Amino acid sequence: MDITVEASNELLRKLGYRLTPQRSMILHVLTEANGHLNIEQITKRVQQRYPNVSLSTVYRTLELLKTTGLVRESHLPGQAPSYETATNDTQHHHLVCRRCHAIQHMDETLLGNLHECLQEQYHFHHLTLDLVAVGYCNVCWQTIQEEQHTSQDNSQ
């Protein structure tokens, strides 16, 4: 579940920060996107409402929001770092297509109690588990199969 503006404001206040218009707008943009955005996409959307917000302000604000746990940064294959609102989950998994770079969130229950096992076996605490699985989405896989079939037909 996404963190609400009220919860964000409360958390920032507890940590000694204010919910500035820039922070609020970035959180709003990320919540509205309901997915991953890179820094340029975030900046463009923020500047539609606040034209004077600079790229450096967006970078600084994202760093703060990451530190406070309100925003999550992902480094997915074939893409610039992307950002999304953080959830209350301690696990966050993605499927990434090698061809079209589509991103899907993976059901966190698929890995069972891996999170707890890692904490118990390796004595790691306050653990966040982010898994990235890379393969081909169904559309790209079908296209690849068709291309291979066509290539085989042309070589005969």
What proportion of the residues form beta strands (DSSP E)?
15-25%
Q: Sketch the major β-sheet.
A: 3 strands, antiparallel
Query: Helix and strand succession?
Result: HHEHHEEEEHEH
The domain count comes to 2
Q: Number of helix segments?
A: 6
Give the CA-based shape.
flat
Task: Write up this protein.
The protein is of the alpha+beta class. The chain has two domains: 1-87, Winged helix-like DNA-binding domain superfamily/Winged helix DNA-binding domain (Arc Repressor Mutant, subunit A, Orthogonal Bundle), CATH 1.10.10; 89-156, Ferric-uptake regulator, C-terminal dimerisarion domain (Dna Ligase, domain 1, 2-Layer Sandwich), CATH 3.30.1490. Helix content is 47%, strand content 18%. It contains six helices and six strands. It has helices at residues 5-14, 21-33, 39-49, 55-67, 114-122, 138-155, and strands at 37-38, 71-74, 82-85, 91-97, 103-106, 129-135. The strands form two sheets. A three-stranded antiparallel β-sheet has the order 1-3-2. Strands 5-4-6 form a three-stranded mixed β-sheet, with no helix packed on it. A hairpin with a 5-residue loop joins strand 4 (91-97) and strand 5 (103-106). Helix 2 (21-33) packs across helix 3 (39-49). The longest helix has 18 residues, at 138-155.
